[in-house]
Amino acid sequence: MISIALTKGRLEKESVKIFEACGYGIEPLKDKGRQLVFHDTKKDIDYFLVKAADCVTYVEHGVADVGFVGKDTLLESTNRYYELMDLQIGKCGFIVASLPEKDPFKKNTHVKIGTKYPTVAKQYFKEKGMDVEIIKIEGSVELAPILGLCDAIVDIVETGSTLKENGLIVFDRICDISARVIVNKASFRLKKKEILELLDDIGQVIGE
Ligand code: PRP
Questions:
Q1: What is the CATH number of the domain that holds 24?
Q2: Residues 131 and 78 in one domain
Q3: What's the whole-model pTM score?
Q4: How many angstroms does the Cα of residue 157 sit away from the middle of ligand 1?
Q5: Pairing of the two strands 92-98 and 152-157
Q6: Which ligand 1 atom lies nearest to the CA of residue 142?
Q7: I want to staple 111 with a disulfide (CB 3.0 to 4.6 A). Which of 43, 132, 142, 154 is the partner?
Q8: Angle ∠(93,78,172) on CA atoms, nearest 5
Q9: Where does the ATP phosphoribosyltransferase catalytic domain start and stop, copy by copy (predicted)?
């Protein structure tokens, strides 16, 4: 038996599609209501639905053998798992954005950056040789430069519509991100056959 922690929300539908294409018994997850744990109707697999950061926690603690989670979350986490596959779903990018008149690269005084991703933001500006103040925000990050909490934001952009609808523009694209398969280190030793079989099935479906 293996257990898989799936990230709720944006990645959920695309993850389910992958299992469906693999021919797994994922039907219970398609009509799920508020249920959070599911057993595959064809394979010996349990699925849990969790928030992105918790997906990493469950995998690191071995409660889930495998996790489907965005690279954005992994870049903010400690590295106590194996990252074994790029799922090619949930594709988006990290960007630096603000109001057109608030270019953070042209500001000579103290620069404040609002973000849900302090590690990524800190690292990026360090590489640019800029000493910035990072302000951690939990959501609706686009609001922060508009209300004057910060000069610019580091955030993820997918379609670009949130930036556009709030009058923000991109000053730099930091990197591309997508969803990854992570695996608990002990599980990979103890359940290697099952996990490699799973990765093989997924790989065939996504063309890896
Ligand atoms: C993310 C991100 C942006 C938005 C980008 O937020 O922080 O706000 O999605 O997507 P777009 O380019 O397709 O518009 P999310 O929707 O996860 O919610 P949040 O506001 O709670 O952070």
A1: 3.40.190.10
A2: no
A3: 0.94
A4: 7
A5: antiparallel
A6: 8
A7: 132
A8: 25
A9: 51-202
